[in-house]
Protein: Gluconate transporter
Amino acid sequence: MSFLILALGILLLILLITLAKLNAFLSFIIVCLFVGLCNGMDVIAISNAVQKGMGDLLGTLIIIIGLGAMLGKLVAESGAAERIAAGLIKFSGKKNLVWALLITAFIIGIPLFYNVGFVLILPLAISIATRYKIPPVYLALPAVSALSVTHGYLPPHPSPTALVQQFHADLGLTMLYGFIVSAPCIILAGPVFAKTLKKYNNRPLESFIAPPKDEASLPGMFISILTAFMPVILISAATLTKMFFNTAGTFGKIATAVGEPAIAMLITVLFAIYTLGIRQGRKMSQIGNSLNDAAKDIAVILFIVGGAGSLKQVLTDTGISNEIAASLQNLHINPLLAAWSISAIIRVAIGSATVAGLTTAGIVAPLIASTGADPNLMVLATGAGSLFFSHVNDSGFWLFKEYFNLSIKQTMKTWSIMETIVSVVGIIAVLLLNYIIH
Structure:
Protein backbone atom coordinates (compact mmCIF):
# COMPACT_ATOMS: atom_id res chain seq x y z
CA MET A 1 0.00 0.00 0.00
CA SER A 2 2.89 2.37 0.79
CA PHE A 3 4.29 2.00 -2.71
CA LEU A 4 0.87 2.75 -4.22
CA ILE A 5 0.35 5.87 -2.08
CA LEU A 6 3.84 7.14 -2.92
CA ALA A 7 3.35 6.41 -6.64
CA LEU A 8 0.03 8.26 -6.65
CA GLY A 9 1.61 11.15 -4.75
CA ILE A 10 4.44 11.48 -7.28
CA LEU A 11 1.96 11.16 -10.15
CA LEU A 12 -0.12 13.96 -8.59
CA LEU A 13 3.03 16.10 -8.25
CA ILE A 14 3.85 15.51 -11.93
CA LEU A 15 0.32 16.36 -13.07
CA LEU A 16 0.13 19.53 -10.98
CA ILE A 17 3.46 20.85 -12.24
CA THR A 18 3.30 19.75 -15.89
CA LEU A 19 -0.39 19.76 -16.85
CA ALA A 20 -1.94 22.17 -14.35
CA LYS A 21 1.16 24.45 -14.51
CA LEU A 22 0.81 24.99 -10.77
CA ASN A 23 3.66 26.51 -8.80
CA ALA A 24 6.05 23.75 -7.62
CA PHE A 25 5.91 24.89 -3.97
CA LEU A 26 2.11 24.74 -3.87
CA SER A 27 2.25 21.37 -5.64
CA PHE A 28 4.54 19.97 -2.93
CA ILE A 29 2.19 21.16 -0.15
CA ILE A 30 -0.86 19.63 -1.86
CA VAL A 31 0.99 16.33 -2.31
CA CYS A 32 1.99 16.42 1.38
CA LEU A 33 -1.71 16.69 2.30
CA PHE A 34 -2.63 13.88 -0.11
CA VAL A 35 0.03 11.47 1.12
CA GLY A 36 -0.60 12.29 4.77
CA LEU A 37 -4.38 11.90 4.57
CA CYS A 38 -4.07 8.63 2.62
CA ASN A 39 -1.93 7.29 5.47
CA GLY A 40 -4.40 8.27 8.19
CA MET A 41 -2.68 11.45 9.44
CA ASP A 42 -4.96 14.25 10.57
CA VAL A 43 -4.59 17.75 9.12
CA ILE A 44 -2.90 19.12 12.26
CA ALA A 45 -0.25 16.40 12.17
CA ILE A 46 0.35 17.01 8.47
CA SER A 47 0.66 20.75 9.08
CA ASN A 48 3.21 20.14 11.84
CA ALA A 49 5.19 17.78 9.59
CA VAL A 50 5.19 20.32 6.76
CA GLN A 51 6.48 23.07 9.05
CA LYS A 52 9.09 20.84 10.67
CA GLY A 53 10.39 19.49 7.35
CA MET A 54 10.60 22.94 5.85
CA GLY A 55 12.28 24.46 8.90
CA ASP A 56 14.81 21.65 9.37
CA LEU A 57 15.99 21.83 5.77
CA LEU A 58 15.94 25.58 5.19
CA GLY A 59 17.37 26.36 8.62
CA THR A 60 20.80 25.10 7.58
CA LEU A 61 20.64 25.79 3.86
CA ILE A 62 19.30 29.30 3.50
CA ILE A 63 22.55 31.02 4.46
CA ILE A 64 24.63 28.92 2.03
CA ILE A 65 22.21 29.26 -0.88
CA GLY A 66 21.64 32.95 -0.17
CA LEU A 67 25.33 33.81 0.04
CA GLY A 68 25.96 31.66 -3.04
CA ALA A 69 23.43 33.71 -5.00
CA MET A 70 25.10 36.94 -3.86
CA LEU A 71 28.52 35.69 -4.93
CA GLY A 72 27.15 34.66 -8.31
CA LYS A 73 25.58 38.09 -8.80
CA LEU A 74 28.87 39.85 -8.07
CA VAL A 75 30.80 37.52 -10.41
CA ALA A 76 28.27 38.09 -13.19
CA GLU A 77 27.88 41.86 -12.92
CA SER A 78 31.57 42.67 -12.41
CA GLY A 79 32.65 41.08 -15.68
CA ALA A 80 34.76 38.46 -13.89
CA ALA A 81 33.25 35.75 -16.11
CA GLU A 82 34.22 37.64 -19.25
CA ARG A 83 37.74 38.19 -17.91
CA ILE A 84 38.19 34.48 -17.18
CA ALA A 85 36.90 33.58 -20.65
CA ALA A 86 39.06 36.17 -22.41
CA GLY A 87 42.17 35.10 -20.53
CA LEU A 88 41.70 31.39 -21.17
CA ILE A 89 40.87 31.92 -24.84
CA LYS A 90 43.93 34.13 -25.31
CA PHE A 91 46.09 31.50 -23.60
CA SER A 92 44.65 28.52 -25.49
CA GLY A 93 44.55 29.90 -29.00
CA LYS A 94 42.00 29.10 -31.71
CA LYS A 95 42.89 25.40 -31.78
CA ASN A 96 41.74 24.83 -28.20
CA LEU A 97 38.76 27.19 -28.04
CA VAL A 98 36.38 24.37 -27.09
CA TRP A 99 38.49 23.47 -24.06
CA ALA A 100 39.01 27.11 -23.08
CA LEU A 101 35.28 27.81 -23.08
CA LEU A 102 34.57 24.54 -21.24
CA ILE A 103 37.03 25.41 -18.45
CA THR A 104 35.58 28.91 -18.27
CA ALA A 105 32.07 27.51 -17.87
CA PHE A 106 33.19 25.09 -15.17
CA ILE A 107 34.97 27.80 -13.15
CA ILE A 108 32.15 30.33 -13.29
CA GLY A 109 29.53 27.59 -13.03
CA ILE A 110 30.56 26.85 -9.44
CA PRO A 111 29.42 30.18 -7.93
CA LEU A 112 26.78 31.05 -10.55
CA PHE A 113 23.29 29.57 -10.55
CA TYR A 114 22.55 27.60 -13.70
CA ASN A 115 20.31 30.09 -15.47
CA VAL A 116 22.75 32.95 -14.82
CA GLY A 117 25.69 30.91 -16.11
CA PHE A 118 23.62 29.89 -19.11
CA VAL A 119 22.81 33.42 -20.25
CA LEU A 120 26.41 34.50 -19.67
CA ILE A 121 28.16 31.65 -21.47
CA LEU A 122 25.92 31.14 -24.52
CA PRO A 123 26.14 34.70 -25.91
CA LEU A 124 29.89 34.55 -25.30
CA ALA A 125 30.13 31.24 -27.18
CA ILE A 126 28.04 32.61 -30.06
CA SER A 127 30.25 35.71 -30.33
CA ILE A 128 33.44 33.61 -30.40
CA ALA A 129 31.97 31.16 -32.92
CA THR A 130 30.96 34.08 -35.18
CA ARG A 131 34.41 35.67 -34.91
CA TYR A 132 36.35 32.48 -35.69
CA LYS A 133 33.77 30.97 -38.11
CA ILE A 134 33.23 27.86 -35.96
CA PRO A 135 29.91 25.94 -35.83
CA PRO A 136 28.20 27.53 -32.78
CA VAL A 137 26.67 24.31 -31.38
CA TYR A 138 30.03 22.53 -31.64
CA LEU A 139 31.68 25.26 -29.57
CA ALA A 140 28.92 25.89 -27.04
CA LEU A 141 27.67 22.43 -26.09
CA PRO A 142 30.80 21.40 -24.13
CA ALA A 143 30.53 24.60 -22.09
CA VAL A 144 26.88 23.91 -21.36
CA SER A 145 27.77 20.37 -20.26
CA ALA A 146 30.11 21.89 -17.67
CA LEU A 147 27.31 24.13 -16.40
CA SER A 148 25.00 21.10 -16.11
CA VAL A 149 27.60 19.17 -14.12
CA THR A 150 28.15 21.99 -11.62
CA HIS A 151 24.38 22.44 -11.33
CA GLY A 152 23.71 18.77 -10.61
CA TYR A 153 26.79 17.68 -8.66
CA LEU A 154 28.52 20.54 -6.88
CA PRO A 155 27.58 22.71 -3.89
CA PRO A 156 26.74 25.57 -3.38
CA HIS A 157 24.09 24.89 -6.05
CA PRO A 158 20.67 24.41 -4.39
CA SER A 159 19.97 20.75 -5.18
CA PRO A 160 23.35 19.20 -4.24
CA THR A 161 23.58 21.47 -1.18
CA ALA A 162 20.11 20.36 -0.05
CA LEU A 163 20.94 16.72 -0.77
CA VAL A 164 24.05 16.99 1.43
CA GLN A 165 21.78 18.09 4.26
CA GLN A 166 19.08 15.49 3.56
CA PHE A 167 21.61 12.62 3.41
CA HIS A 168 23.77 13.96 6.29
CA ALA A 169 26.80 13.96 3.99
CA ASP A 170 30.02 15.95 4.35
CA LEU A 171 29.93 19.03 2.12
CA GLY A 172 33.70 19.17 1.59
CA LEU A 173 34.04 15.47 0.82
CA THR A 174 31.04 15.58 -1.50
CA MET A 175 32.68 18.47 -3.32
CA LEU A 176 35.97 16.59 -3.69
CA TYR A 177 34.21 13.46 -4.97
CA GLY A 178 32.15 15.71 -7.21
CA PHE A 179 35.25 17.06 -8.92
CA ILE A 180 36.45 13.51 -9.58
CA VAL A 181 33.11 12.45 -11.05
CA SER A 182 32.77 15.68 -13.05
CA ALA A 183 35.89 15.14 -15.14
CA PRO A 184 34.74 12.15 -17.27
CA CYS A 185 31.21 13.60 -17.52
CA ILE A 186 32.41 16.89 -18.95
CA ILE A 187 35.00 15.34 -21.27
CA LEU A 188 32.67 12.74 -22.80
CA ALA A 189 29.53 14.89 -22.96
CA GLY A 190 31.58 17.91 -24.03
CA PRO A 191 34.55 17.79 -26.43
CA VAL A 192 34.16 14.09 -27.34
CA PHE A 193 30.44 14.28 -28.16
CA ALA A 194 30.89 17.72 -29.76
CA LYS A 195 33.05 16.19 -32.51
CA THR A 196 29.83 14.77 -33.98
CA LEU A 197 28.14 18.20 -34.06
CA LYS A 198 30.20 20.13 -36.60
CA LYS A 199 27.44 19.68 -39.17
CA TYR A 200 25.09 21.96 -37.18
CA ASN A 201 25.73 25.33 -38.81
CA ASN A 202 22.45 26.96 -37.77
CA ARG A 203 23.01 30.69 -37.45
CA PRO A 204 22.03 31.97 -33.99
CA LEU A 205 19.78 35.00 -33.75
CA GLU A 206 21.72 38.27 -33.88
CA SER A 207 20.06 39.48 -30.68
CA PHE A 208 21.90 36.76 -28.74
CA ILE A 209 25.36 37.93 -29.82
CA ALA A 210 26.81 39.80 -26.86
CA PRO A 211 28.42 43.20 -27.52
CA PRO A 212 32.10 43.34 -26.47
CA LYS A 213 32.89 44.93 -23.10
CA ASP A 214 35.63 47.43 -22.42
CA GLU A 215 38.47 45.14 -21.33
CA ALA A 216 40.03 47.83 -19.15
CA SER A 217 36.91 47.89 -16.97
CA LEU A 218 37.07 44.16 -16.19
CA PRO A 219 38.68 42.78 -13.00
CA GLY A 220 42.03 41.00 -13.29
CA MET A 221 42.32 37.36 -14.32
CA PHE A 222 43.88 36.16 -11.06
CA ILE A 223 41.43 37.94 -8.79
CA SER A 224 38.46 36.76 -10.92
CA ILE A 225 39.45 33.09 -10.65
CA LEU A 226 40.43 33.40 -6.98
CA THR A 227 37.09 34.95 -6.04
CA ALA A 228 35.01 32.47 -8.04
CA PHE A 229 36.91 29.50 -6.61
CA MET A 230 37.34 30.73 -3.04
CA PRO A 231 34.45 28.69 -1.51
CA VAL A 232 35.88 25.53 -3.08
CA ILE A 233 39.38 26.37 -1.80
CA LEU A 234 38.26 27.07 1.77
CA ILE A 235 35.88 24.12 2.12
CA SER A 236 38.29 21.68 0.46
CA ALA A 237 41.16 22.89 2.61
CA ALA A 238 39.12 22.20 5.74
CA THR A 239 38.23 18.71 4.52
CA LEU A 240 41.87 17.89 3.71
CA THR A 241 42.96 19.27 7.09
CA LYS A 242 40.55 16.91 8.85
CA MET A 243 41.89 13.99 6.81
CA PHE A 244 45.63 14.59 7.15
CA PHE A 245 46.32 16.95 10.07
CA ASN A 246 45.59 17.32 13.75
CA THR A 247 42.57 19.59 14.05
CA ALA A 248 43.24 20.19 17.75
CA GLY A 249 46.11 22.57 16.97
CA THR A 250 45.79 26.26 16.14
CA PHE A 251 46.21 25.72 12.39
CA GLY A 252 43.67 22.90 12.38
CA LYS A 253 41.11 24.94 14.29
CA ILE A 254 41.47 27.94 11.98
CA ALA A 255 41.33 25.85 8.80
CA THR A 256 38.27 23.98 10.08
CA ALA A 257 36.52 27.21 11.12
CA VAL A 258 37.02 29.10 7.85
CA GLY A 259 36.11 25.96 5.90
CA GLU A 260 32.74 25.58 7.60
CA PRO A 261 30.40 26.09 4.60
CA ALA A 262 28.45 29.09 5.92
CA ILE A 263 31.64 30.84 7.12
CA ALA A 264 33.46 30.05 3.87
CA MET A 265 30.62 31.55 1.84
CA LEU A 266 30.47 34.63 4.09
CA ILE A 267 34.23 35.22 3.78
CA THR A 268 34.00 34.83 0.00
CA VAL A 269 31.10 37.27 -0.38
CA LEU A 270 32.86 39.89 1.74
CA PHE A 271 36.02 39.35 -0.32
CA ALA A 272 34.00 39.66 -3.55
CA ILE A 273 32.33 42.87 -2.36
CA TYR A 274 35.79 44.43 -2.25
CA THR A 275 37.53 42.74 -5.22
CA LEU A 276 34.60 42.73 -7.65
CA GLY A 277 32.78 45.76 -6.30
CA ILE A 278 34.57 48.50 -4.38
CA ARG A 279 37.89 47.88 -6.14
CA GLN A 280 36.10 48.20 -9.50
CA GLY A 281 34.78 51.63 -8.54
CA ARG A 282 31.25 50.60 -7.60
CA LYS A 283 29.48 52.35 -4.74
CA MET A 284 28.23 50.37 -1.76
CA SER A 285 24.67 51.41 -2.59
CA GLN A 286 25.05 49.78 -6.04
CA ILE A 287 26.58 46.67 -4.54
CA GLY A 288 23.78 46.54 -1.98
CA ASN A 289 21.17 46.67 -4.73
CA SER A 290 22.91 43.77 -6.51
CA LEU A 291 22.89 41.71 -3.31
CA ASN A 292 19.20 42.48 -2.79
CA ASP A 293 18.45 41.39 -6.36
CA ALA A 294 20.34 38.14 -5.73
CA ALA A 295 18.15 37.42 -2.70
CA LYS A 296 15.03 38.00 -4.81
CA ASP A 297 16.34 35.69 -7.53
CA ILE A 298 16.48 32.68 -5.21
CA ALA A 299 13.12 33.15 -3.48
CA VAL A 300 11.35 30.63 -5.72
CA ILE A 301 14.18 28.12 -5.36
CA LEU A 302 14.05 28.36 -1.55
CA PHE A 303 10.30 27.71 -1.59
CA ILE A 304 10.81 24.62 -3.76
CA VAL A 305 13.56 23.36 -1.43
CA GLY A 306 11.29 23.95 1.56
CA GLY A 307 8.42 22.13 -0.12
CA ALA A 308 10.65 19.13 -0.81
CA GLY A 309 11.74 19.14 2.83
CA SER A 310 8.09 19.05 3.88
CA LEU A 311 7.34 16.06 1.66
CA LYS A 312 10.36 14.23 3.06
CA GLN A 313 9.09 14.81 6.62
CA VAL A 314 5.58 13.58 5.75
CA LEU A 315 7.08 10.43 4.19
CA THR A 316 9.14 9.95 7.36
CA ASP A 317 6.26 10.54 9.79
CA THR A 318 3.95 8.16 7.92
CA GLY A 319 6.65 5.47 7.83
CA ILE A 320 6.55 5.24 4.02
CA SER A 321 10.26 6.01 3.65
CA ASN A 322 11.30 3.20 6.00
CA GLU A 323 8.94 0.71 4.36
CA ILE A 324 10.28 1.54 0.91
CA ALA A 325 13.88 1.37 2.15
CA ALA A 326 13.23 -2.06 3.66
CA SER A 327 11.58 -3.27 0.45
CA LEU A 328 14.43 -2.03 -1.73
CA GLN A 329 16.94 -3.61 0.63
CA ASN A 330 15.15 -6.95 0.36
CA LEU A 331 15.33 -6.68 -3.43
CA HIS A 332 19.11 -6.24 -3.10
CA ILE A 333 19.17 -3.17 -5.34
CA ASN A 334 22.35 -1.10 -5.20
CA PRO A 335 21.26 2.04 -3.28
CA LEU A 336 23.33 4.29 -5.55
CA LEU A 337 21.64 2.85 -8.62
CA ALA A 338 18.23 3.07 -6.93
CA ALA A 339 18.77 6.78 -6.17
CA TRP A 340 19.88 7.44 -9.76
CA SER A 341 16.96 5.54 -11.28
CA ILE A 342 14.24 7.19 -9.19
CA SER A 343 15.73 10.65 -9.77
CA ALA A 344 16.00 10.00 -13.53
CA ILE A 345 12.36 8.88 -13.80
CA ILE A 346 11.12 11.98 -11.96
CA ARG A 347 13.40 14.21 -14.06
CA VAL A 348 12.00 12.86 -17.34
CA ALA A 349 8.45 13.26 -16.04
CA ILE A 350 8.76 16.73 -14.49
CA GLY A 351 11.69 18.37 -16.28
CA SER A 352 13.19 20.15 -13.29
CA ALA A 353 16.52 18.74 -12.07
CA THR A 354 16.10 20.46 -8.72
CA VAL A 355 12.63 19.03 -8.08
CA ALA A 356 13.76 15.57 -9.25
CA GLY A 357 16.75 15.49 -6.92
CA LEU A 358 14.93 16.82 -3.86
CA THR A 359 11.88 14.56 -4.34
CA THR A 360 14.16 11.53 -4.62
CA ALA A 361 15.92 12.47 -1.37
CA GLY A 362 12.76 11.97 0.65
CA ILE A 363 12.31 8.51 -0.84
CA VAL A 364 15.84 7.07 -0.63
CA ALA A 365 17.35 8.79 2.43
CA PRO A 366 16.56 5.81 4.76
CA LEU A 367 18.55 3.54 2.42
CA ILE A 368 21.76 5.14 3.68
CA ALA A 369 21.24 3.87 7.23
CA SER A 370 19.83 0.48 6.21
CA THR A 371 22.46 -0.35 3.57
CA GLY A 372 25.50 1.58 4.76
CA ALA A 373 25.71 3.47 1.46
CA ASP A 374 28.18 6.35 1.30
CA PRO A 375 26.04 9.50 1.79
CA ASN A 376 28.46 11.64 -0.25
CA LEU A 377 28.15 9.31 -3.23
CA MET A 378 24.38 9.12 -2.76
CA VAL A 379 24.31 12.90 -3.29
CA LEU A 380 26.21 12.50 -6.57
CA ALA A 381 24.13 9.51 -7.73
CA THR A 382 20.90 11.42 -7.12
CA GLY A 383 22.34 14.49 -8.84
CA ALA A 384 23.37 12.40 -11.84
CA GLY A 385 19.86 10.99 -12.18
CA SER A 386 18.33 14.48 -11.97
CA LEU A 387 20.15 15.47 -15.19
CA PHE A 388 18.89 12.54 -17.29
CA PHE A 389 17.38 13.26 -20.74
CA SER A 390 16.19 16.85 -20.68
CA HIS A 391 13.40 17.34 -23.23
CA VAL A 392 10.41 19.56 -23.99
CA ASN A 393 9.27 19.91 -20.36
CA ASP A 394 12.59 21.49 -19.31
CA SER A 395 13.18 25.24 -19.70
CA GLY A 396 16.86 24.59 -20.49
CA PHE A 397 15.81 22.63 -23.58
CA TRP A 398 13.93 25.62 -24.99
CA LEU A 399 16.64 28.12 -24.06
CA PHE A 400 19.25 26.11 -25.96
CA LYS A 401 16.89 25.65 -28.91
CA GLU A 402 16.14 29.34 -29.23
CA TYR A 403 19.71 30.56 -28.68
CA PHE A 404 21.00 28.39 -31.53
CA ASN A 405 17.92 28.55 -33.77
CA LEU A 406 17.51 24.75 -33.80
CA SER A 407 14.50 22.59 -34.57
CA ILE A 408 13.04 20.39 -31.83
CA LYS A 409 14.57 17.32 -33.51
CA GLN A 410 18.00 18.98 -33.67
CA THR A 411 17.75 20.04 -30.02
CA MET A 412 16.96 16.44 -29.06
CA LYS A 413 20.01 15.22 -30.99
CA THR A 414 22.31 17.76 -29.36
CA TRP A 415 21.11 19.08 -25.99
CA SER A 416 19.07 16.05 -24.86
CA ILE A 417 21.81 13.56 -25.74
CA MET A 418 24.44 15.71 -24.00
CA GLU A 419 22.37 15.76 -20.79
CA THR A 420 21.88 12.00 -20.99
CA ILE A 421 25.63 11.41 -21.40
CA VAL A 422 26.32 13.61 -18.36
CA SER A 423 23.83 11.55 -16.35
CA VAL A 424 24.85 8.05 -17.46
CA VAL A 425 28.61 8.69 -17.28
CA GLY A 426 28.01 10.27 -13.88
CA ILE A 427 26.41 7.18 -12.33
CA ILE A 428 29.08 4.93 -13.86
CA ALA A 429 31.80 7.15 -12.37
CA VAL A 430 30.03 7.14 -8.99
CA LEU A 431 29.80 3.34 -8.98
CA LEU A 432 33.49 3.03 -9.91
CA LEU A 433 34.49 5.51 -7.23
CA ASN A 434 32.39 3.62 -4.69
CA TYR A 435 34.22 0.40 -5.67
CA ILE A 436 37.63 2.07 -5.27
CA ILE A 437 37.07 3.79 -1.92
CA HIS A 438 35.02 1.02 -0.32
